[in-house]
Every structure is written in structure tokens, then in C-alpha cells.
Protein: Capsular biosynthesis protein
Organism: Metabacillus rhizolycopersici
Amino acid sequence: MEETISLKELFLTLKKRLSLIIIIAAIATATSGIVSYFLLTPVYQTSTQILVNQSKSDQQVYNPGEVQTNLQLINTYNVIIKSPAILDKVIEQEKLDMSAGVLNELITVGSEQDSQVVNITVQNEDPQMAADIANAIAKTFQTEISKIMNVDNVTILTQAQIGENPSPIKPQPALNMAIALVVGLMAGVGLAFLLEYLDNTIKTEQDIETQLGLPVLGAITTINMDGELNEHANKATMIRTRGESVGS
């Protein structure tokens, strides 16, 4: 019984504060939309792929040992790609107004497990600039790795390209607004229960018994005097009308 009463009180609290919950959720969603659409700068992403594989002639056959060696070199290559030895040359070549450390934060290098294909991903506010940087990194690395490690086993597999209408990877306004809506609803519900908890005013007979521990001897109902007077006036009008009808 207590659980049913408590559940009912929860619903009554939510119903009483429903307008507050809706307002908070709407404000949170609108704020997120404004920030996502008008204040945050869109960031675009593009990537290029390189293949780590020793070049062979027609007479050479598949060698599992070479493949395993190339796979072991990939982790080393991933570090070299993001090193100043490569990035400084890319900055100079593309005339970028940033340091190697800043450029390093925009680059992600990785490969699938047991794959000889390395993905070089670049993020930038300009989609064309992102593609140019990714292609420059791949080409510079292909040239410099033969000098650094005295090997020639890197081939550019695909170049970074942008479509006609590239879409930014962030921000994502729809997702941000959905998250803001959920957070706003949670905040509104929490605030509703907090206000209800802090509200210690006595409104019903049950509040007197609960908070003061006193028995209720009687209750004074609210009488709408205007409504009562109007009702009596209407009744008097109806009686007068009936009397005049009978007299005629």
C-alpha cells in the first residue's frame, strides 16, 4: 500500500511540475541547437591509404616471411608518420601556419589487425586542406622512409579526395540536440523533485497529520460566493418567468 501511495505521489509531483520540466528541456535543446549550428566551427575529415609491401618483379613469388616483416614495421611506420621528420616537411611544403605539434593533433594513423594497409586520417576546418595535408603526408613519408630506414616498401594505395558536398564529422547538431533534450528532461525532473522536497507548506489534511502529528477535527471548504449568488439570481429569474407565464 505504501508503495502505491509513493508511486502516486511521484506522478502527481511530475504532473504538477510538468510545465517546468518542459520549459527546461526546451531551453536545453534550443541552446544546444544554437551552439551547434551557429557557434561551433564545422570540422571535416579525409583519409588516404598506404600499402606497406616490398616491390617485386615478375619472377619473385609470395614470401610469408616478408609479409610478417612488413606487419612488424607498421607500428614503427605509424610513429614515423607523425614525427617532426615528416610533419615539418609537410608544413613547409603546404605552407601551413601551425607547428608540428598542432598538426600532430589533427592526424590519426592506424591499421587493421594483420593488415599491411595504413590509414592516414586528417581533420581540418577546410575539407580541401584536410585532403591536401593527408596526400602530402603520404607522399612525403613514401619519399623519406627510403632515406630513414633504407627500404622501399611503401606504396600509396588511395589518395584523399573530397566529394561535391562534404559533410562535417562534427559538430552533429541532431545528436547534440537529442542529448540536450534527454539531459534537460533529467534536469527538469530532478529540479521538480527538489522543489517538492523543499516545499514544506501545508496544503491538505494529510499534510497536517504527516508534518504536525495532529489529528484533523474538521475542514472548512472553500465557497465560491460569486458562483452562489449567480446561481440564486438565475433561480429567481426562472421562478419569476414561470409566474408571469402562469398569470398570462
